[in-house]
Amino acid sequence: xxxxxxxxxxxxxxxxxxxxxxxxxxxxxxxxxxxxxxxxxxxxxxxxxxxxxxxxxxxxxxxxxxxxxxxxxxxxxxxxxxxxxxxxxxxxxxxxxxxxxxxxxxxxxxxxxxxxxxxxxxxxxxxxxxxxxxxxxxxxxxxxxxxxxxxxxxxxxxxxxxxxxxxxxxxxxx
Amino acid sequence: xxxxxxxxxxxxxxxxxxxxxxxxxxxxxxxxxxxxxxxxxxxxxxxxxxxxxxxxxxxxxxxxxxxxxxxxxxxxxxxxxxxx
Lengths: 174, 84
Prior knowledge:
The complex is a heterodimer of chains A (174) and B (84). By secondary structure, chain A is an alpha/beta fold. Chain A has helices at 16-34, 49-59, 100-117, 122-141, 148-163; strands spanning 6-11, 38-43, 63-66, 74-76, 82-85. In chain A, strands 2-1-3 form a 3-stranded parallel β-sheet, sandwiched between helices. In chain A, strands 4-5 form a two-stranded antiparallel ribbon. Chains A and B meet through helix 4 and helix 5 of A and helix 1, helix 3 and helix 4 of B.
């Protein structure tokens, strides 16, 4: 795998608009190269979904720049083929650790392992995890009316918390 | 009350809950992805379809909603903060 920082950029060139974007993007590419960043340039007919997903999986770029047409749900590449579609492959541009919604759940459940590693008993670890679940739900309660995602996440956090069980010897420690 | 009437009320309630769950799911971000135990990972639109069908995945989503409604009725604040 290529080491160091990586920039993936798409530059479809199938009409005036994309030709302009592509040409102006060469300035970004030059700047990136000058800073020692590795550039993955999906130029022309390489700016297609299959190529895009393959490169992301293989090279895990630290920054992605998409040039092309689109709307609030899609970004297109060469010949207006969709490269990113919301709800379909938008996950490829996510960074799991930067996904705040997922973090609400995973921080809470990870607390079991972290507490065990710190020397707490199984029961204590589960309780500490549930404390974090409660804290996360409490934070969401303040924005339930303005953000539908918050309400949904609060419901799911409550479910996860209520259904997390500690089975076996509760006093066991690592 | 007759058995038939009770059954009808049950069906009406299920239908109401299903409609409520679908209405709520339609308001969340369309790129929401949920992982449900060993059933798999589902997009918002897939979840809506499962609730409409009323299959196991749909029933799980309904159960989450019901648990939330029960918690709201029974005192969510107490559950979250009222340990003492």
